[in-house]
Amino acid sequence: MVERLVRKKDFYAGGLMILFGLVMSLKGPSYRLGSLMHMGPGFLPTALGVLLICLGLAVGAGSLSTADGEEEDILPENREWLAWGCILASPLAFMLFGAYFGMAPGTFACVFVASMGDREATLKGSLILSAFVTFFGVALFSYLLQIPMPILTWRGL
Amino acid sequence: MIGTAFTDLWYGFGVALEPHNIMWCFVGVLVGNMVGVLPGMGPLATISILLPLTFGIKPVGAILMLAGVMYGAQYGGAICSVLLNLPCHPPHAVTCLDGFPMTKAGRGGAALGATVFASFVGASWGITEMIFLAPVLVRVAMEFGPAEICSLMLLGLLAGSTLARGSPVKGVAMTVLGLMLGIVGTDIETGSERFTFGMTHLDDGIELIALALGLFGIGEFMNSVNQVSTVNAKYAHVTLKDMRPSREEMRRTIGPMFRGTLIGSLCSLIPGTGPTIASFVAYATEKKLSKTPEKFGTGMIEGVVCPEAATHSSIQGDFIPTMSLGIPGDAVMALLLGALMIQGIVPGPQLIKEHPDIFWGLVASFWIGNILLVILNVPLIGVWVKLLTIPYKYLYPSAMFFACIGVYAANNDMFQVGEMAVIGFVGYVLLRLGFHPAPILLGFVLGPRFEENFRRAMLISRGDIMVFIERPISAVFIALCVLLLGLQVYVRLRPKKPGDIVVPAAAE
What is the DSSP letter of B230? Predict the structure, then answer.
């Protein structure tokens, strides 16, 4: 039975919910539970955690009732590791470059990193796109909308 | 009653027609229409990006603009479906079935023309409904104590999570997760910090914008990157002249248009059944009523007009519980409610009385916005078609920048940009595991109010949990909850009939 389970998407879905539920229901009581009449800050998180564990069990158990199908892959057919990495790295690039060098370098880095995720991306194309977005982005957000963030700065390393 | 409604509406037009409000409404519908056309950009992501930019403007202008994005996107989505066979937005998935064959036959312009007209009729009906129903609901809701509010929220949350797409159990799990995320931060009553894990940045809770952009921005980009093929726009040549339906087509649209409107407004009254379900039911009904059901799917104008009218009437109707009770029906409404709360406005039955400018201004702006959309769509159709050909590889990096700067601008806090990235990653994992992230937002927005009212109800009843069943109004809501869950179980266990309409999950 376990062998059948580990091939099911819902097994992992339920497992993840149980994990979240465990974190909530184990951490919850440390915030003081209180009584039903005078609920403490830990009451609802603990209750929700227990509920989520039950729901996780239901989702996981539901995976037993369905037939083995081919649509049980968690990852999609085309695995875009590079693109996923680029998209997730893009906000981090914005944070890093934005905090140390200002809005313009942050924008440039953010767009450049994100655009490299596309399969047809070329270095030149990405550079042009980043420059374009940086120019208009800074004009819009810094001059028109007055977002308090320096355009160019040097905060040392 | 009709007299006061007209006075209030008159006042609303006064508010909505103030120059700066009209401008924000125009910006909203224009942006909405644009993103509705662009494949891979939904109204949710757009509203979240625009949200931080509205902090500087007055609440009325802000909400008019954000609402404009919401219904403007529906007009754009129809263009996408009819001309390109791309169901960018779930409610328009059925429009493709007959819209695209019409385009192939050279009648795409006429289909769009009829759609714009039907949408306007549908929306107008929805707005009228809002004018008369919302004040009635408010009068009832004013009597509610904490126990009733709690049960009502429970009903709203359950309906929002089980009636949407996908497995109901997973939907409820997402709602619970959302409620949980709403708890993160400092507890209002005791001041103790919950689930911050020592990070002072989390003291004020998770930022709504970071959550929405993570789930619906980053999660969505990860899902569509390198999957969106270049748009085939070879049929998409529409000029203004093509948009006039022939007299025969016009005659055929009248019936479906009103039936669609009616179905849409009925669907909007049931919490949780949003525009997507309305448009699918409308299409199925039209097919059943037609004398030539076998012709559906080959370019019947009835199959285009009816779902579109239903979508628009249901979208306007969705505003009723959101604005009058403070209970959002879906994720977009939850986001709009969140926008109001950021502006310092407490949602709930007292909203219409305390902020009549917001409520009646919004109602009036719906009409102005819909008229603007009709005006925008007819001559600008060529521009929208051009927009469709923007490749995704330029679109998503630019959108990433807008998301980053938007989250940053909300509180001038770089931490929240990272928060968005983490939420985006988790959101994508959840999406891959077959969870739909929309109920998370519902739970998140309602979470704090739910906890507050639950505590209060328990305090008043001296810790007696039976209070939810003993008070009659609350008992009705709880009974409805049980009925809803019972129906779900029944539908699941019942053997599938071949004629059932299945909402395609691909139309995300």
Answer: P
| B405 with A147: Cβ contact below 8 A | yes
Q: Which residue of B has its CA nearest to A89?
A: B421
Reported as a single tens digit per residue, the pLDDT across B447-476 is 888 888 888 888 888 878 888 888 888 888
> How many helices and strands (H and E) does chain B possess?
21, 2
Mean pLDDT of chain B: 83
Residues 392-421 of B with CB under 8 A from A: 392-394, 396-398, 400-405, 408-409, 412, 414, 417-418, 420-421
Residue at A115 is within a domain: yes
> Are A86 and A49 in a shared domain?
no
* Burial readout B452-486 (b: 16 or more C-beta within 10 A, e: otherwise): ebbbbbbeebeeeeebbeebebbbebbebbeebee
pLDDT at B508: 33
Do A93 and A120 share a domain, yes or no? yes
pLDDT of residue B164: 67
Query: What's the structural domain count of chain B?
Result: 1
Structure confidence at residue A19 as a pLDDT band (50, 70, 90): very high
Residue B133 host element (H or E):
helix B108-141
Closest of A53, A18, A30, A49 to residue B194, by C-alpha: A30
Of A39, A65, A91, which residue constitutes the final position of a domain?
A65
**pTM for the structure as a whole:** 0.85
ipTM attached to this prediction: 0.90
Structurally, how many domains does chain A consist of? 2
The model's pLDDT over A72-114, given as tens digits with 9 standing for 90+, comes to 677 777 778 888 899 999 999 999 998 888 889 999 999 999 9
**Could you list the residue range(s) of the whole structural domain that residue A30 is in?**
2-65
* C-alpha separations of B304 from B16, B257, B285, B317 in Å: 31, 9, 13, 20
